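Work package 3, deliverable 3.1, input record:
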Amino acid sequence: MLWKQFFTPVTSINGSEAKQLVVDEGADNVTFLDVRQPQEYEAAHIPGTKLIPMGQLDTRLDELDPEKPVVVY
Amino acid sequence: MMAGKGFKRIYNLSGGMKAWQNETAIGPPELGLDLFTGAETSEQTIIIGYGLEQGLREFYLEMAAQVSSLGSKSLFTRLADIEILHQQQLVALYKQVSGTELSRTDFETKLVQPAMEGGLTTTEYLLRFNPDLEQEQDILGLAMSIEGQALDLYERGADQTTDTAIRDILKQIAREERSHIAQLAKHIDEMA
């Protein structure tokens, strides 16, 4: 089995690039989205991150601004 | 999941929190992935779905062999078995949609395999996410993200078709994928 088509158009960036994105766009203009479970979020998360666990993502997308860049982890 | 809902700029933070904490973390190499366009026909959705179910099954069996906790092992084995059911449903659905009589073997060799050519192997796919395979939480998180892709695929397929019978089946498979995500989430919570 090969995993060809399953990715939606998402670019991967590393931690430094994510920080640069915040510098370029301004902190208020970048959404950080944590899709892990709540206790993982509680253990450690990027400051200002919005928590929406993966299992709720499809029903809670309206809580996010689609115009802003979103960094997901 | 988000790209289909109007989000234009989505970035996956490679390595997750670890990458943020340790700026030298390097993400997995990009391997020229073809993207799921969201414009697939019902037949294509079924073919891709079948391949995805096969990949999920392989992934769960591989993870069942890797993890040490009996609870996780049993969960992964159970999820792997459910994917076989999904594959059977998809073959039946394909026959219905296309009006052709195909054996499951023919469906796999003539339709699914060509559609997957040039893609990533399961190992390469895993490398892309770079999970810590010693950490069950990482593995469970990866499983959730793959199930999320599957859920998204079926939801989009269901939205696209005008045939209510097909929509019902795709919605039903989507609901089952959602319940997998819920099972994985519950399992992570119980581990805490």
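The longest helix of chain B spans residues 70-98.
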